[in-house]
Amino acid sequence: MKKTKIIIAFLIVLTTFSCTKSNEQKALFSKEALSETLLTTTENQIAFQDILKKYKGKTVLIKFWASWCGDCVKAMPKIKELQAKHPEVAYMFISMDTTADKWKAGIEKYNLNGANFMANDQMNGIFAKAVDLDWIPRYLIVDKTGKIVLYRAIETDFEQINLALNQLKKE
């Protein structure tokens, strides 16, 4: 009986810690995330930190997605709405596709206007783990100074995303 109570207590603590960690708001990217390279549409590799440097002084909305992801595809019209409401924002799409061909076909099929990159090792790789990617679509917003203002939003959080972008527009 005592062992059972200890095991239950341990599982409660573990579950609480796991849930807290996945919903944690981070203000900066980890060194692992920044140094990881992503594939460009021209088949080159570029470090994530170098991508972000190009957007210094701009608000950036990052969408993690994949062409095989039904929820990602369903959310594409919402991204188009955000792009229409917030043309001052830079939009970056980071794919978790398994092949460059499928990723590029998805860019064309869904007419993704913005910067497009693909993670080299998909959902279970170094980059995905470094940004705590456990679900797609996932959205992340970086402000003009490079600080993360919204670390984890999913397909049901468009109101939260829009509010964050409106707030940044005022700053």
Automatic annotation (TrEMBL):
It comes from Flavobacterium sufflavum. This is TlpA family protein disulfide reductase. The keyword Transmembrane does not apply. One of its GO terms (cellular component) is cell envelope. It is found in: Cell envelope. It holds the Pfam family Redoxin. One of its GO terms (molecular function) is oxidoreductase activity. GO terms for biological process: cytochrome complex assembly. Keywords: Cytochrome c-type biogenesis, Disulfide bond, Redox-active center. Its main location: other. Residues 27-170 form the Thioredoxin domain. InterPro entries: Redoxin (IPR013740), Thioredoxin-like_sf (IPR036249), Thioredoxin_domain (IPR013766), Thioredoxin_ResA/DsbE_sf (IPR050553).
